[in-house]
Amino acid sequence: MLFLSIDTSGSYSCICLIGDNCEVVAENNIVLNENKYFKELNNKQLVPSTLIFKQLDDMFSGLGLNLTNIGGIAITLGPGSFTGIRVSLSIAKTLAYSLNLKISGVESLYACAYSFINKNNNFYLTVVKEFIKDKFYFEIYKIENGTLKKFKNLETGNINEIIYSIAQLNIKSNFVFLGSYNKCKLNGNIQLFNNSGIELDVFDNLRLAYLSGIIAINKFINNKKEQSDFQALTGISPVYVYSGGAF
Known about the structure:
The protein is α/β, with parallel strands linked by helices. The chain has 2 domains: 2-107 and 206-246, Nucleotidyltransferase, domain 5 (2-Layer Sandwich), CATH 3.30.420.40; 109-205, Nucleotidyltransferase, domain 5 (2-Layer Sandwich), CATH 3.30.420. Helices cover 38% and strands 31% of the residues. It has helices spanning 36-43, 48-63, 82-99, 108-114, 159-169, 183-195, 208-223, 230-233, and strands spanning 2-7, 12-18, 24-31, 70-76, 102-106, 123-130, 136-144, 147-157, 173-179, 200-204, 241-242, 245-246. α4 packs across α7 (208-223). The longest helix is centred in the middle third of the chain and has 18 residues, at 82-99. The protein is globular and about 50 Å long. The two termini are 33 Å apart. The model is unreliable at 243-247 (pLDDT under 50).
């Protein structure tokens, strides 16, 4: 079974096709404002939804396949780009319904933390991602014996607020920064954390589509789902953050 995974939760559009053995069969990534191809599309005034369909067409035509060859869809829910997530989620839901496909929504910070579950030791992990100005999204997970559990729900805050929040929980935590490898932007953020005595691992957000797909595949295998659960379609929604918290 081929599994399609879509992530537009950041300043990029990532499409990944995953095979039976969890291998990447094909992928198509466009980093907005950095990719020449995207600039050409932008000059033609193509909208994000058109961009995703163009990526899908390029990827499947290059393999000699079409959408009927996939058995399920994973979609990254954010937090992140308000417009990007809404567009890709609408496309994913439409494809799932029209093609009778399994569908799974995966939170981006969870997908990042999931990449650490095969570590030998047990530990807490704080995932941080850029929000606005000097603030970050952050969420704390507990990784224990190959399992991943959310320990503290999604919040936003500056570095001092993140440190205080962890201190209140009376835990020690590792940190991972979920973001782009754009050096100018990334180095500035890393420097802020380094100045606070925090060492960061870095997880490239262009890997989120693949991780979301792997999480979805494992979910469907464990649940032994054979058909699309249409009731779940309405329950999949973006992860947004407002002044009172996440919803």
